[in-house]
Amino acid sequence: MQENSLFLNQYLIESLLGSGGFGSVYKATHLTTQLSYAIKVDKKRKGNVKQESAFLYELQGGEGIVKVYEAGETEEFTYMIMELLGPSLSKIQKQQGGKFSLDTVIPILIQSLYRLQYIHSFGVVHRDLKPQQFLVGPNNNLYLVDYGLARKFIVQGTHIPYQSNCSRAGNSTYASLNNHIGIHQTRRDDIESLAYMAVSLMNGRLPWQQSSRINSSVKWNNVYKIKSTINLYELCQNCPSEFVMFIQYARALDFHEEPDYEYLRRLIKGIQPLEGVPEPMKKSESAAKVTNSSETAPESAKSPDEPPKSKKQVVIPKSKSYMIRRK
């Protein structure tokens, strides 16, 4: 679609907000109401937007879920008309010089865990978490968007069976180790991807990030070699040691296992100032507005330092700490 063109004879297309393999998103204004919307379109033969709208209709009403006002198809496109949200974490991060301060990343993580817990409660796994998929919206809340790769892990009330030799899906930078080796993604993979995202928000990039010009298969293989062998404390340098625990917990989850979201939130809330890290850098207005919101959950009697029992043992190294604890 072109700028200043009409869509459905009702919406004036103003600008392209973003595009990718699963459609393009435009800012548009309704001619009668003069209200602004986001319109996502995709070639009809692909059908990705149609599938995404089905997931979003099911998730409607949840905090951090974009409102969908209409979905349908024309002779050429499938489309969704949605509420217009603010910038992505990726865009804000670039405006901030490539890194977020710890006091910004903590509430981002806490809100993100609520978003994942919500979509997982509907049997949906996102499969493509990255900073571009989190937008700042009304009431300073984070919105998890783009369900073009989402899939159901609960079908007719039953968890899907273990599957291997699957196609890799999502972004190689934030993909879980199991995604790399072709194991079907479930809740644990979203959690692991979120952990990598947290490190990238703090440090600006991940050690395995590859040029976009590299062949996709080569890139995935190169990333896996580094990701599967790197020392987690090296990966999480300049980050709190709780980030190491977060990654270890995610990697220890079983295929069918439900993550303990509240344990992870307590873990993140318990982070203390870092030794040698300067005062929180000045945040943009948008970044500063990313708060913990009003969402709360009952606190368990378990300590944040005691991860919930899993079928796999979570090994927490005790030999190294980056933290200064408040006295």
TrEMBL record:
UniProt domain Protein kinase: residue ranges: 11-275
Chain spans, region Disordered: 277-327
Cross-referenced CDD domains: STKc_CK1
**Which InterPro entries does the record cross-reference, listed alphabetically?**
CK1_Ser-Thr_kinase, Kinase-like_dom_sf, Prot_kinase_dom, Protein_kinase_ATP_BS
An example Gene Ontology molecular-function term? protein kinase activity
PROSITE patterns (alphabetical): PROTEIN_KINASE_ATP, PROTEIN_KINASE_DOM
The UniProt annotation places ATP binding at K40
Name this polypeptide is given: Casein kinase I
